[in-house]
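Worked example

This section walks through a single chain of length 87. The input is the sequence exactly as stored; nothing has been trimmed or padded.
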Amino acid sequence: MDHRRNTWWAKLRRTLTSWLPVAPGRIGSCQSCGLCCELPNPCPFLRFRPDGRSFCAIYHWRPLNCRKYPRSPAEHITQPECGFRFE
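Given that input, the structure is written out below as tokens.
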């Protein structure tokens, strides 16, 4: 993870831009790694299954910045573990 972009300012920016559409070229799917739920601190709704995979305790009510992460290549700081990528 790129810790230089994992700051409170970066989270605020991701939140403010979450109403924008997801950039074209995003492919893949969530791998339940939980890394995006730790930006920049662990989310209180992040839970883990016995096999180590994560899930969201408020999945159906999660905020837009969670629903759309990674919205753009510039916001994608949880690679290569994240199942999403941009072509």
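What to look for: Residues 1-8+32-82 form one domain.
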